[in-house]
Each structure stands twice: as structure tokens, then as C-alpha cells.
Amino acid sequence: MMFSKLPISREPFINLVNKHRHWKKSLKKGRLRVMNKMMIVAKNLFMKRVKSWGYWGLVLGPIVFLAVVMGVGYYVAQSEDSGDEVSEQIAVVTESQTVVDVFSQYETPSISVVDPSTYDSEEAAREAFNQEEIAGYLVVQEQGDTIQSTFYHDGLEQEAARLEDALTQVQMNLRAQALDIAPEEAMHLSEAVNLVVQEVMPSEDNPDSFAPIISQGLTIISNSVIFFFVLVYVGFIVEEIAREKGSRVMEILLSSVSATEQFFGKLLGMLGLIFLHTVIYVVLGMVGYAYISRQAIYQEFIAELPAGLLTISGQLGWIMALYFLSAFLMYLSVSAFLGSLATKAEDGQKVVSPLSMFLLVSLYIGYFAPAESALVQYASYFPPFTPLLMPMRVAAESASLTEGWLGVGWTFLFAIIIIFISLKFYQASVLVYDDTGVLNAFKQARSLRKSNQDAQ
What we know:
Order of helices and strands: HHEHEHEEHHHHHHHHHHHH
Oligomer: single chain
Structural class: mainly alpha
Number of domains: 2
Number of helices: 16
């Protein structure tokens, strides 16, 4: 039985392909539209802050303060150096030719002796001292083979021991003469013991002995920077959102830009400000390093460091940089949600204070609790505390570099989770206005979020 071939139409397949292409184009356009809106929000926030004097005061203030402190320190050091070059003058009053011979060539970095023949009596030396022509005078009397002396001065206590040594040498020479001992033999008897003083440094083959010192210094600086940056920029984003809500601008913005686009746009804008802030400090740091690295004292310091030490500190530096970024992602996203709970700009400080205390607690634990303590060890695995505590444990060698890198991964994962949780609460609370308090606003936002989930 023969069957004729039925014509198969291609039109349904063509329509399906066209619909698929249209869907892909629409999806791509939608994504681009969302990205464009996010970038607009980020750009507006970035430019508004960059154009403000407050931002540049924040950026340049620490630099000016550091420059002033270093300038004052340099001026004081120069003043002390120049002061050391000016020696005080003292007079020696004596009738002993032996004493005159010794003190004719006596000089220390702090004092010099005027010509012993200048003041032939104690009264003349006292008058010169009272008129501040000299800083002190030494009265020496030779009684047989014994020296009797009195030193009158104003603020030259450190010179008394040196003068005593010189007078002891004179007395020894007198007694050597009385005992008919040749000066060479007397010098031989009083010859100082040859004591070799050698500072024992850790072995250069063991850079780990140096690593904790430098690494702990790096972590202290890093934690202070993280605390300062996070606290400042958390305040920025809370202030921004609270002001928009208080002036009812948020309602207008949400009519054209979704809460999600607002949330991520503000995060991107803040990250842009942080990036600019960091780049400025890095560039200035490189300029300062280029100057310091040419100084002899720096080159001597680097030459004394054992090989491999900078490699160890470099790995810790990368870990701290990644913790720096993860801390911002966590705390900025939470601060955006907290800012959405504020009804007016004045509530900004109220909602951010719990977050500030949270940061302060982690900073205090890291500074004052021993790195080997159970508190620090357990708290370092709590993601909000990890950026501040784990680097300190790695620096103190109570945690390995592997644990530090694992902590970085865990902290970034937690930061992503926190971002999306904060986004959900932000979407629910951004239009909540409750004058009864922040806690009631949070309860209302949670109820709205639950209602939205049930509706979906």
C-alpha cells in the first residue's frame, strides 16, 4: 500500500525560533535597563559625595593630621640635634697643676671647661655662675694624695659621673707618685677590661621569629583602617537613605526605579567612593614609600630582615585586603536595610548605633583578648567578626594561612547571603513610615515581607 508524502509546513518552527530570539532580546534589554538604572543611582550618589567638601575633608583630614604630626616630630628632632651641638661651659677652680693639666683638655658632648686660669678663686667662679656666664664650676683641692672636690651646677647632673671619673684618674696618679710607681705601670693597673658587647639576634634562617612582630603590626593598622572606613561609610549610606525617606523623595524615586535597583545602586556608589578613597591613599603611600626607600635608615632596616619575611607578610596582606572588601559588603548591605527603617534624617544615628557597637566589640576583642584565648578562636569563625579577628590570629600564629584563606571564602559567602537578606527587608521597609520607633518599623517591615511572601 502506497502512502503519499504529506507536505510539512516550516512555519510553526520558524515562529518558535523567532519567539525564542525575541524573548532573548527582551531579556537582554531588560537586563541592560536594570543595569542602566543601577548605574544611574550609583553615579548620582558617587558624584554628590565627591562634589561635597565633607568627603574631601574625610579623605584629606587624616593626611593633613599625619603631615602635621610628622612635621612637629621632625622640628623637635632637629631642635634637639641643634641643641646637642651647643655645649655648656663650666669653670675649674684649683691650685693643683695636675688637675689643671687634666682639665685643660677635658670636653664632653654636653660641656666644655673654660681655661682654668680664667677664674683664680671660688668667689670669681660663683659670681660668673650667678650671672649665668657659666653653667657650673668645680672646686678641687689636693690634700696629699687625696682629691677633695665640689661641683656646683644647674641642670648638669649627668656630668657628675664623668667628672668623678676624671678626678679619680687624677687621684690615682697622685697615689702612684707617692708609692713611686711609674705612670706607665699605674696606667697598666687601671687598664679597663675589654668587654665585647654583642646583641644576639634571632637566626636569619628562621624568618618566623620576626614574622609575628611585623604581622601583628600590620593587622593592628588593618583593623583600625577597616573600623574607620566601615564606620564612616555605613554612616554615609544610612544618612543618604534616611534623608530620602524623610523628605519623601524615596516615593518619587521608587516610581521609576525599583527598590532592588536602588539597593544595589547605592551599594555600587558607596563601593566607588571607597575605591576612590583607597586609591588616593595608595598613591600617596607609594609616593611616601619612594621617598623613604631612598633613606639610609630604611635600607639598613630592610637589609637586617631575614629572607622570606616579606613573602610571609605579603600573603597576610592579601588576606587582609580581601577581608577588607568582605567587611564592606556585609556591613554596607546591613546599613542600607537599617537606613530604610529610619523615618527621618534624624533617626539615622539611632539605627546605625547597634552596628557601630557590633564593630566596636569585635575590635576590642581583637585588641585586648590574647590571640590564643578561646574567646578569640571561637569569635573568629563568626563571620561578622572574622574580618577583624582572623587576621590577628594568623599574625599571632594561632591560626594558619590556610585557615585565613578559608575564612575569606566563608566570609564572602556569608556576605552574599547577608546582601540578599538585607535586600528583602529593604524592599519591605523602604516605604514604611512609623514615628513610634525603629523597632516598630522593623516589626512592620517584617510583617510586610511575610505578607509579600504569602502573596507570591
